[in-house]
Specification:
By secondary structure, the protein is an alpha+beta fold. The chain is built from seven helices and eight strands, in the order αββββββαββααααα. The chain starts with a helix and ends with a helix.
């Protein structure tokens, strides 16, 4: 897939949020990122002043605590805009890393140029605002699930949302994403397997 096709995917993605974007105003050059599983778009502490668009694959937002414990905060599946809003807008180091969970392709734009060109078009600004709304809603739902859903149901939801990952993603990463320990996840998997075998 060439750069024009990748950029068209980006255009199609935002067109779903607003149909009247004047793309003739958007002339931002793209960088191409071909990621193998385990490679990063950027790492915690990096200068991450680019907006990324994930064309294919899956990535995870991961954070390492001061004690060296790693947490998977979020998982994003293409097509999706990804990046650190805080790092882009404030110019501060990224508080997390974005790592490819599968082989992935992404394009990116310098945030300052992207924002300057986007701000020329009200339709594009509305599309970006609607995109942010969907991200905030997803974040609220995930945080609510930690409180209101059982660990088993959170794991089943993970399997439903990311069917390609349960057999390939490390158990520790899955466990941290759904808010439990790897030991608890092993028990849940064993109960599910036992229940399926008894039917």
């Amino acid at each position: 897939m060439d750069r024009l096709q990748l950029k068209q995917q980006f255009i199609d993605y935002f067109n779903q949020y607003h149909s009247k974007i004047d793309w003739s105003l958007f002339k931002c050059e793209i960088d191409l990122h071909l990621l193998k599983k385990g490679q990063h778009l950027f790492q915690q502490g990096d200068d991450a002043k680019r907006l990324y668009f994930l064309n294919s694959g899956l990535v995870r937002y991961c954070n390492v605590s001061d004690k060296g414990k790693e947490y998977t905060q979020s998982i994003a599946k293409a097509p999706r805009v990804v990046g650190s809003t805080r790092a882009m807008t404030l110019g501060t180091p990224a508080l997390f890393s974005i790592e490819a969970v599968t082989d992935s392709i992404a394009i990116s734009f310098p945030w300052d140029i992207f924002y300057q060109q986007m701000s020329q078009d009200l339709g594009f600004m509305k599309a970006y605002a609607t995109f942010l709304e969907t991200i905030f809603i997803q974040k609220e739902l995930k945080e609510s699930s930690i409180i209101h859903l059982s660990a088993t149901q959170r794991y089943l939801n993970f399997c439903r949302d990311f069917p390609e990952l349960p057999g390939t993603m490390p158990q520790q990463q899955i466990a941290s994403y759904i808010g439990i320990t790897p030991i608890a996840l092993s028990r849940i998997r064993a109960r599910i397997k036992e229940s399926a075998g008894s039917r």
